[in-house]
Structures are given as C-alpha cells and as structure tokens.
C-alpha cells in the first residue's frame, strides 16, 4: 500500500529516525539451536538507533513495525510474527487490514502487547504512542483501496 509508505515518508523526513520497507531484512535476537537470530521482512519499520543498521539490513529490534495483511499471509502476520515481535519486546506494532480498512496498534507493556481498539472509519485519526506527533488519518492509509 503506497499510501502507508507515503505517510511515513512525510512524517520521518528530517527526523533522527528512518523508515524502511520490504524487502529489507530485520534480524531479531531470537536464538534457536541452529542460528543466533530470526530474520523477518516487515512491510514497513522504523529505526531510531542507526547502530542497528548494517549492509544486511537491521540487526536488532526496530522501534516500530507495520505489517499490511494480505489474504495469503494474514495468519503468519497475526500469529507467528506477532509472537516473535512480542518476544523481543518490540515497542510498537501496527497491523493494517486493507480489505476491512482497519488498523490495530499494539504497544509493549511489561513483556506483552496491549492492543488498541480496532480503528475503523474515515474520520478516525491514529496516534502512535511511541511517536505522539505521528497522527495519521485512517482514510489517508486506504485512499484508492477498494
């Protein structure tokens, strides 16, 4: 959804944080028996600590991740990735559902995600807890989506 990247592009211009979008690897610090991290490719994410960036992408936990559901991968984003992001204490996680035109924002609290209500409706304004001046008109995210 091009509108989502446009919204973040405008907001993070000239700020200390940078946004990135897939395909761009994020290596989360979740060791298993074979490797020392788990690689994911979020649809969009924000990094405020430039030391986490290297030639392979992001090595560590981003500050904010946005996943845009698609009919083919929604269960992966809603279960597997949700659990991974919660495990690494991701500060904020947005799930955008383009066919229902809804958004849920999760914020980390004591090692668990706490979800917002489901945001719906053209007049709704989304506000990030992590970036309070990031206020997004819901209708702007879904402009042109049928």
Strand content: 25-35%
Full CATH superfamily name? tt1808, chain A
How many separate domains make up the residues?
1
- Compute the average pLDDT: 88
Spans where pLDDT lies below 50 across 5 or more residues: none
Oligomer: single chain
How many strands, which pairing sense, and closed or not: the largest β-sheet?
A: 7 strands, mixed
- Briefly note the structural class of the backbone: alpha+beta
> Which CATH class?
Alpha Beta
CATH architectural label = Alpha-Beta Complex
Provide a short characterization of the protein structure.
This protein has 146 residues and is α+β, with helices and mostly antiparallel strands.
How would you characterize the overall build of this protein?
With 146 residues, the chain is of the alpha+beta class. The protein has a single domain, classed as tt1808, chain A. Helix content is 20%, strand content 34%. The protein contains three helices and 13 strands; from the N terminus they run αβββββββαββββββα. Strands 1, 4, 7, 8, 9, 10 and 11 form a seven-stranded mixed beta sheet that branches. The chain has a four-stranded mixed beta sheet with strand order 3-2-6-5, with helices on one face. The longest helix has 14 residues. The radius of gyration is 15 Å and the shape is globular.
